[in-house]
Amino acid sequence: MVKSRSIIIVVIAILFLILAISFFPSTKKSSIEKTTFTFPNYFVVHNLVIYDSPSYLLLNNWVNESIWISTGIPEPNALLNNLPNLPPTITNLYVGPYGLLNFTLSVNANTSLAYLNLNNCIILETNKGNITILEPPYTPYFLILFSLNSTTAVTIKPTSMRISSSLFVINETLPIYILTNGTFPLGKGKWFIEVSVLEKPNSSILALIKLNKMEVTKWLDKSKSTNLPSNLKKEYYLSLLIVKDDQNPYLGTFSASPSPIYLYSWVRDSAFSALALQYSGHYHSALKYWLWLSKAEELYPGVFYTRYNFYNGNPDTTFGIPELDGIGLFEIGIYSYYNLTGNVSFLRSVFPTLEKIVEYQIKEINSSPYHLLPQDLSVWEDRDAYHFWTEAFNDLGLYYAVKIYKALGFENYTVIEKYEEMLNQSIISNFWQGSYFASALGTSVIFENGKSETVLSPEPPSIDSATLLPLDLGYLPVTSNYSLTNFETVKSKLTINGGLARFYGDDYHYDEYLYDSTGPNPPWIITTLFEALYFEKLGNYSQALNLMNWAYQHSQHGLLPEAVNPVSPSYPLPTTSPLTWSSAMFIIVALNYN
Question: May I ask which residue range the UniProt record assigns to the signal sequence (predicted)?
Fold first, then answer.
């Protein structure tokens, strides 16, 4: 690119002076801006400050465009974990319905701090200065703003064609326009790069920044309010932005995390993201997911694939063993959406999928010698077995399917009621172990008197925090002896450094698959929030608040990870952070707080 004429530089300098002034808050503030947000302290390990910032994030324009950002924060054991360590980079430019476009922008800088703020801007503090990335909602533009202290190389691929001294284009067929006030490499000073797809750039950079702030604030202000203290209220809003940013704005799928390991749409994780959005009043975003899932390709009639491609919605056929909790969560989710909105036409549109699911559930319960759904990998994907989590969520799903059939005027709901009750009792009779619900059951053969009998028996590890959430959501009353005894058992056996581990012997982040924990049994954010939600259902809000604070204190500048190191120092485990489901669970727990 050639250097802009001096008059343009003067104008741009004035523009950035105005822009800098505009960063100071106006006298009129929305409810989002009225509380302070102090980030927790972070961690020093072996004299290195690590794990306080995410390595990967997503942004989207809430309509049809998404970008994936490598923040430049290095991942520990990157090669071992099969993760890329990149400089600050923007890639995976997705535009619906066209798909992923060939575009990469990278900056030659070393990042020391990265976070998302409540204007939905990604802030990178680097050795070359600060970089801000934003994607104003409902526009075809995204901006990269630079405040540099030294000359910095910026690389854009593929090669662009110059239209004027400040405007360039990539791919004239599906044009990607690049507008800048600088020359490459960028020198010391304030610069911008604006990228737009299909439409010519908007030269009013200040107007785009103001538009971004206005639209993000407006969206957050529409959220249902919570009774949380100010720091956790801000965490609630930030979690909403993470869930919103991690959705494919065109299809409706959700990424489990911006981390490449989890850059897929799991049916289960996505269901909780959609639930969190509809509980918080953001019905349109949730609707996109339920409508997409109702039309997604099925593994077989009435059963979804475990996960789908985040960008095109195609099933990941490498996950051949189904995870059957997804069908129950679909039933729960669509009834919840109807109950919140009263939208009967929505129920009618998803009913063909619901009908196939119910037929599958009834067939399997009826044909099973145990009157259970078949074995699956379930929530932790660690073994093929009969899982309490899967069975209980299918029971809840059938319970809400009855309500949907009634709402639509179908009289055969009584058949569903019969099988829901059968499943409910089968779960209790098979999974209850005297003081807890077994997480998983396997089959074994007993030989006696010359005869053999196949029976179900618990598979270790048997005590599991995943047994809490179905109880939170109503499989049994939380005050029942079953529920209370299970809760106390799980809490007493799995509490680690203030949070709740999944199960004893959990090596997933330690030496089984990922390698970012210094020991086994890390407490997970979602399981700790399962516990918090249980306390809320019991009316013990002070204990729930303690657990929400624990989750916040173990975040990456408010971005919630999957899990936390189990021994001191208890830092957020970085390889799968931020985890979208963690943010979704925080939203759900926040909305239940009184």
Answer: none
What kind of fold does domain 6-218 have according to CATH? Beta-galactosidase; Chain A, domain 5 (2.70.98)
- C-alpha 237 chain-centroid distance: 14
CA angle (578, 581, 586) in 5-degree steps: 90
Classify residue 77 as left (phi > 0), alpha (psi -120 to 50) or beta. Answer: left
DSSP class of residue 315 equals: B
Looking from the CA of 69 toward its CB, the CA atoms found within 13 Å total: 31
What are the residues whose beta carbons fall under 8 Å from the beta carbon of 579, sequence distance 6 or more? Answer: 256, 257, 262, 525, 526, 560, 561, 562
pLDDT of 321 reads: 81
- Token digits of residue 83: 């993760």
Decide if 370 contacts 386 (C-beta within 8 A): yes
SS3 (DSSP) at 58: strand
Give the span between the Cα atoms of 504 and 239, in whole angstroms.
29
CATH number for the domain formed by residue range(s) 222-591: 1.50.10.10
User: Which sequence spans correspond to the domains of the chain?
Assistant: 6-218, 222-591
Kindly report, residue by residue over 415-468, the tens digit of the pLDDT. Answer: 999 999 999 999 999 999 999 999 999 999 888 888 888 899 999 999 999 999
Q: Kindly report, residue by residue over 562-578, the tens digit of the pLDDT.
A: 999 999 889 999 999 99
Alpha helices in 459-539 (DSSP H): 468-472, 481-494, 525-538
How are beta strands 303-304 and 499-501 bridged, if at all?
unpaired
Please give the pLDDT value at position 165: 80
Question: Residue 322's beta-bridge partner residues?
Answer: none
Contacts with 12 (C-beta within 8 Å, 6 or more apart), sequence order: 4, 181
Contacts 24+ apart (CB under 8 A), 295-303: 295/353, 298/356, 301/356, 301/359, 301/360, 302/327, 302/356, 302/357, 302/358, 302/359, 302/360, 302/361, 303/327, 303/357, 303/360
Alpha carbon 484 to its chain's center = 29
Give the separation between CA 474 and CA 469, rounded to whole angstroms: 9
Residues in the chain: 594
What stretches in the chain show pLDDT beneath 50?
Answer: 1-29, 31, 33-49
Residue carrying structure tokens 């530089």:
9
CA gap 13, 198 in Å, rounded: 28
CA 338 to chain centre: 23
Residue 525 to residue 577: CA distance in whole angstroms? 11
| pLDDT for the residue 302 | 98
Hey, is 159 helix, strand or coil? coil
